[in-house]
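Milestone M4 deliverable, item 7.
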Amino acid sequence: MKTTDDCKSGKRKKEPWLMPVTKAFYEKIRLKGEYAVRKLGCGSSAICNLMKVIDAYLLQGKEPHYGEWEWILSFFYSVQSDIDAAIERRRRCRERAAERKARKEAAIAEAQAKEVAENEAVEPETVVENFSRPSGIADTDSGIPIRDSLDAALTNGRGKG
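Output delivered:
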């Protein structure tokens, strides 16, 4: 994690959320677990054990084994369907967000390509065809350098100065 010295704004950078459910849902499950622990009269370490089981299921898909305390098994299996539904909801939300981002990037790329195509639409031949030389300026085929013929045309043959 970055410290306040590493960040430009002076604020600490947030750790990325790695759980496949929202923070709000995770907090809701934690509060339900605390309520169950309090009602059962278990010690304060019981909520830590319960959350380790839930974290293992969320991160690795591991279901608790039957060596766990019975109340942990009961609580886990009572909320497992809610957890699975929350994981699926979050997965669909991420897919929709990725689709929106891809559509936005495609629209930006299309707009940039259209702009480039419009800028390249001017044909050099059209510009050359419409160009006409002022009278008195010699072509390079005449053997007179263009610079000299320009000077002559500008001074109308009176010489320089």
